[in-house]
Design a protein that fits this description.
Elements (H helix, E strand, L loop, with lengths): L13 H15 L7 H6 L2 H13 L4 H12 L6 H10 L4 H7 L9 H13 L2
Length: 123
């Protein structure tokens, strides 16, 4: 499959991505519910993408949106990092530090705990 040009870009969580991919699957399958016969005619890349999003997503799309909005309200959190945190759903300070490893700043333990508390509220 060749990509000729990018029409638009949008950051999204794996849960939101899964919903978009399922909508594309249903549209291409002729509006069917994704039964076995229509799944065989779908491109390999689309099937694997849906499987990948299914296996790695940590929450439903509504919860992911709420979490991203809450994380974006905190200091030192860019939207890209907020989505990365929601996709990974870290459970410890060390996992959060790994997400921030490439950043030019580090978070204080209080900031890490605040992020973990937000995640724990919605899990």
């Amino acid at each position: 499959m060749k990509v000729k040009k990018i029409i638009s870009e949008k950051i999204m969580s794996l849960s939101e991505l899964r919903e978009v991919l399922i909508a594309i699957r249903d549209l291409r399958a002729g509006g069917h519910d994704g039964t076995e016969t229509s799944a065989r005619t779908l491109p390999y890349e689309l099937r694997k993408s849906i499987d990948h999003a299914d296996s790695l997503r940590k929450c439903d799309p509504a919860t992911a949106k709420i979490l991203v909005d809450e994380l974006n309200c905190l200091e030192k959190i860019r939207p890209e990092i907020a989505y990365r945190i929601v996709n990974i759903m870290p459970e410890s300070r060390d996992e959060l530090r790994a997400i921030y490893a490439k950043e030019r700043y580090t978070l204080l333990p209080e900031d890490l705990d605040r992020i973990l508390d937000i995640l724990r509220q919605h899990v």
